[in-house]
Here is the input.
Amino acid sequence: MKTVSKSDKLASVCYDIRGPVLDKARQMEDEGHKIIKLNIGNIAAFGLEPPDEIVQDMIRNLPHAAGYTDSKGLFAPRKSVVHYCQEKRIAGVTVDDVYLGNGASELIAMSINALLNNGDEVLLPAPDYPLYTAVVALSGGTPVHYLCDEQSDWMPDIADIKSKITERTKAIVVINPNNPTGALYPDSVLLEIIEVARQHQLIIFADEIYDKTIYDGHGHTSIASLADDVLCVTFNGLSKNYRSCGYRAGWMVVSGEKRHARDYIEGLNMLASMRLCANTPGQLAIQTALGGYQSIKDLVAPGGRLARQRDQAYDLLTQIPGVSVVKPKAALYMFPRLDPKMYPITNDQQFAYDLLAEEKVLIVQGTGFNWLQPDHFRLVFLPNTDDLAEAVGRIARFLDHYRKRHSAHSL
Here is the structure.
């Protein structure tokens, strides 16, 4: 029989957060092994539940949620997003500028599909959240990665951004707060990015899904609030701040200078209509979430569960010889660096396989986030303190063995 092959468009696409190493972990689980999973921010799996008020409102409304909604979403949750934009000081947003989606991920794909022609370029951070690189490639575009500087708390390298702009560049992606590094960008950096976008007429795609998951009393600024003469598309949702990953409730806001983008917005409307609508129960959670008690503040405050786990993971990792970490100011992740002199890793996916096989701990290798060198990995600090201590202890033991094996080979 004729072989059925995947599309050539998938040749340059990868999503290693749920990739081959996870497949191996599932096989090991089927064989009876217990795996500590530090690979994905699936918050509910670690006992962090959504606020009960959201759950109860969805239950009450479920009998009336069987029909399609407007392709952009129900009016009331979209209006609540407008009010949220006002709180974030994003000017001029109306209900028509808000699109609800099956998580922010669907809207990210929609917004990039609507924009790119074959060969168009999008500037993406390195490291990035790999969905962006994958979607740009699937849309026929070319992902171009700009460096974030670990020595400067993972801030975007503005000079590197400028050096990578060509006549094919259409947009720049800004992930703030950042996944995978946990960086939080100050206004000064955001203003520099805006100026680059202004000069080169680029769309800014702003991923702000962790904008409430912020530690040490820091604040978050929406980049769209700093300029009304640049077209911004901002993504957010309930998955992280409201521990509601499975509800798939996200939103996208188009703001700034829209007069020259009418054709693009028509494309967004077309794609929104083609998928009919976002899931209605998830939409019904948005208004309650945004208007209710913000319990995320308790989790990220000093002594709160997420703050404690961040501090613990940072302390334990930095005690391991040859491991350095920029302490995250936000989000749920760390992106530790392994000193190449102590850990001469050439294939970091194999490194992740070996860690899984020897210690039953699942992480994601740094190249899975389009980081060029095989010297980083990402882990989530969502497990409770006992499990987190066990997991990092296993990583430390594996790295100790790795160092000893390397020293023996180099003698």
User: Anything to note?
Assistant: Residues 354 and 398 are 9 Å apart (CA to CA). The mean pLDDT is 93. The two ends are 54 Å apart (CA to CA).
